[in-house]
Amino acid sequence: MSPYVLNLVGARLLIAALTLLIVSFAVFFATAMLPGDTATILLGQAATPEAVAGLRTAMHLDEPAFIRFMRWLAGLATGDLGTSYVNNIAVADLIGGRFVNTMRLAGVTTLIAVPLALTLGITAAMYRGSLYDRIVTICTIGVISVPEFMVATSAVLIFSVYLKWLPALSIAGDVTSIGEMLKIYAMPVITLTFVVSAQMIRMTRAAVVETIDTPYVEAALLKGASRPRMVLRHALPNAVGPIVNAIALSLSYLVGGVIIVETIFNYPGVAKLMVDGVETRDLPLIQSCAMIFCFGYLLLITLADIIAILANPRLR
């Protein structure tokens, strides 16, 4: 690997680290500005001023915001996410089981959405201008135009209310059979797959079409290469970088989509836990959940940039 490529990769990692630091600053002070006093909410309206003041001191809420931010940042650096104000339990313990549920939901969605989107995007580019291409394009534009909560609500109305095939809530308990697992994950996965796949199909098709229009691919077609061979053998290897970026950007929509989907379907994940924390003003819990989502988003984008650098033959 050339020193130039190593410098580019190092620069991307440094930018990601600085971005994460800026995001942590924004997350902390945005949550600190939430309306309502945490101590008053926890003790109730009937609490005396002395009790409220004592609780604020115990939770270090009477300290300047910058000092609290530095203490919280130092805890993040050492893996200490703090203690929940509401449950008086370590935030890491609260998030532990929920994080597994969220990752399982995201993993199942990725396993379905990525192959589906790549197949439709590449084949649509392969037969550009055909009826198949127009149908795929119209369907993806239609799905992109519909927000996540509308897709989730429509899925509940169709599959739960009218057809009565699936439960309206996805309560992940002890799964004893494949049928139960399918019922639990079907509705959230369908919703997230619709949202993620539509963006991925559009960007994959655009990346492959741009590569097909290059002179060397057209030369392969003039030499007698079939259209599938022209795309799979000549165009696709040179479109790896843009396609990986398309996958990463599309999967990053899981960050926002998971929050909506877990809330609507009452799925016990990190996003649902964060929404519950907002209701009770549990600041350490909210901040930790937000940082997990921000870290996941930055990780996807940074990996996509690094893969695009390594896949570019001109840089190598």
Question: Can you characterise this structure?
Answer:
With 316 residues, the protein is an all-alpha fold. The protein has a domain at 95-311: MetI-like (MetI-like fold, Orthogonal Bundle), CATH 1.10.3720.10. Helices cover 77% and strands 0% of the residues. Helix 5 (91-126) packs across helix 11 (240-264). The longest helix is centred in the middle third of the chain and has 36 residues, at 91-126. The radius of gyration is 24 Å and the shape is flat. The mean pLDDT is 81.
Task: Quickly describe the structure.
The chain is mostly helical and about 325 residues long. It is built from 13 helices and no strands. Helix 6 (about 130-145) crosses helix 8 (about 180-210) and helix 11 (about 240-265) runs antiparallel to helix 13 (about 285-310).
Features of this protein?
MetI-like fold; 0% strand; 316 residues; flat; mainly alpha
Please write out the topology:
Blueprint: H1 3-32, H2 38-43, H3 49-58, H4 65-77, H5 91-126, H6 131-144, H7 148-162, H8 178-212, H9 215-222, H10 227-238, H11 240-264, H12 270-280, H13 283-311
CATH first level of the domain at 95-311: Mainly Alpha
Helix content: over 70%
Q: Gap between N and C termini, in Å?
A: 7 Å
What structural category arises from helix and sheet content?
Answer: mainly alpha
Level-2 CATH architecture of the domain at 95-311: Orthogonal Bundle
CATH superfamily of the domain at 95-311: MetI-like
- What's the mean pLDDT score? 81
**Major pleated sheet:** none
The backbone outline, from C-alpha atoms, is flat
Q: What low-confidence regions span 5 or more consecutive residues with pLDDT below 50?
A: none
Oligomer: single chain
Q: How many DSSP H or I helices?
A: 13
How many strand units?
Answer: 0
At the fold tier of CATH, the topology name of the domain at 95-311 is: MetI-like fold
Radius of gyration: 24 Å
Strand content: under 5%
